[in-house]
Design goal:
single chain; about 325 residues; alpha/beta; TIM Barrel; 12-stranded mixed beta sheet; 10 helices; globular; binds S-adenosylmethionine; binds iron/sulfur cluster
Length: about 325
């Protein structure tokens, strides 16, 4: 491991999801873990108390779909009470946000990223295998209404996105949202099989630049791997995360804890350090040792990007 700080934990609270996005899950879904195999909130709190000792201060809740886990605001409240935790955010498909945004905000959630891969209701339904675009957009409204700011929208760069460049540009013209286009990553066994058909950041940026001059702006919220641009007069911005074409392994500041209690220091690596048993035993020294071991395995090596990883994003916590 190089000397730089790993201060960001992606905490997956469930492997379950109310969508089955075509690039994330197979059509038949994935076999969910049983209740007993999944960390309890108490296990997660114990883990975070240990992780702050090695410098973790920012936590992003993810999944699966984190909002399908019962009483998520209780977890947020307990996490925000931990000394050393100074930022709690959430990545969600948004459809349950209208129901939970207020309670989450009151519990200490700061902001959300909402995944919306298409602004076309039919394509959205096909991509998510049954999801409603109107419900996801209601999630965006709820995030604004409850001050979960800045509101970021994530869209995976699938080739069909090229037909929606003007729709996304219009979305950022009228709303102060920050749409981040993320290069599709070959994690798990779903999504495009032909690497050539994958859309790159450069190709997509060219399409946006054809709409108007792109002015580079700072990152809303201050940090992260995206580069952001504003089209003239637009309320929001477009950002590009080139996880594949520009490797940013050298800047990676993140650690992941999966819902079934395994640590992953690199999304692209199959290496996992099992901590479920240590957490259940509330073994502080053992957990600390496991975190250190996982971080030591973090190579910041761009060549690992194509290493095979059998678990999909919904199981890892993308
Ligand atoms: N269900 C929530 C959601 O969709 O936002 C949280 C979990 S999801 C696994 C987290 C993020 O990973 C989403 O923005 C999703 O689009 C992204 N994602 C899933 N599979 C991906 C892949 N193969 N490449 C790039 N991003 C991916
Ligand atoms: Fe579920 Fe998110 Fe994966 Fe879509 S991307 S299937 S919403 S976990």
């Amino acid at each position: 491991m190089t000397g730089h700080t790993v201060d960001y934990l992606r905490l997956s609270v469930t492997d379950r999801c109310n969508f089955r996005c075509s690039y994330c899950m197979p059509p038949e879904g994935v076999e969910f873990k049983s209740h007993e195999e999944i960390l309890t909130y108490e296990d997660m709190i114990f883990f975070v108390r240990v992780a702050v000792q090695v410098g973790i201060s920012k936590i992003r809740l993810t999944g699966g779909e984190p909002l399908v886990r019962k009483d998520l605001s209780d977890l947020v409240k307990q996490l925000s009470a931990i000394e050393g935790v100074n930022d709690i955010s959430l990545t969600t498909n948004g459809v349950l946000l209208p129901r939970f945004a207020g309670a989450l905000r009151d519990a200490g959630l700061r902001r959300v990223n909402i995944s919306i891969d298409s602004l076309d209701p039919v394509r959205f339904r096909t991509l998510t295998r049954g999801g409603s675009l109107a419900d996801a957009l209601a999630g965006v409204d709820a995030a604004f209404e409850h001050g979960l700011l800045p509101v970021k929208v994530n869209a995976v760069m699938l080739p069909e996105l090229l037909q929606e460049v003007s729709a996304f540009a219009e979305f950022t013209r009228v709303r102060p949202v920050h749409v981040r286009f993320i290069e599709w990553m070959p994690v798990g066994s779903c999504g495009p099989s032909d690497a050539e058909s994958v859309l790159s950041k450069d190709r997509l940026m060219k399409e946006f630049a054809a709409i108007g001059p792109l002015e580079q702006v700072g990152s809303p919220g201050g940090w992260g791997p995206a580069r952001y641009f504003r089209l003239p007069g637009h309320a929001g911005t477009v950002g590009f995360i080139s996880s594949m074409s520009d490797h940013f392994c050298g800047d990676c500041n993140r650690l992941r804890l999966t819902a079934d209690g395994r640590l992953k220091s690199c999304l692209f690596s199959g290496d996992e350090v099992e901590v479920l048993r240590l957490l259940r035993q509330r073994d502080e020294a053992g957990t600390l040792e496991a975190v250190r071991r996982s971080l030591e395995g973090k190579t910041f090596d761009k060549n690992r990007v194509r290493e095979m990883n059998s678990r999909g994003m919904s199981q890892i916590g993308g």
